[in-house]
Amino acid sequence: xxxxKLLILLLNSLLFLSxxxxxxxxxxxxxxxxxxxxxxxLLLSNQLRSHLKNFDMLDDNxxxxxxxSISHSSSVYITNIDNxxxxxxxxxxxxxxxxxxxxxxxxxxxxxxxxQFYILASSDNFGSNKKATQQIKFENTDYFVKKFVNSLxxxxxxxxxxx
Length: 163
Known about the structure:
Double Stranded RNA Binding Domain, alpha+beta
């Protein structure tokens, strides 16, 4: 009896899992233009390629081209009066546009920004400051790309503004 109940539960869970689909239900194919910005641009390009490829939305010959720019800025601030806790705040902002090469117009625009901070080590000799900065930049870029890909629908890809 116990095995039968387990098999029924397993069958129900497989049924529920097979009915779920996290992929966007559209047939958008996108290409990616060159993204400037040295390491940050390369990181954004790789993240976009990876996520679009996973959703089967990447096609280098597509009429829709993603043009992107990303920037990260940092600032140090002190959180209390006795100056014992310095923090570095990293603010990231992104601008993604989808350009229709056939119609010579922009069809979709996505802008977003996010900020994170970490507690700054007291010396420049610590590699943890650099590692924390790199990790935050990677997480922010990944967040932007996931949010962008999930926001795409085929209904929105109509010409909004001419180039």
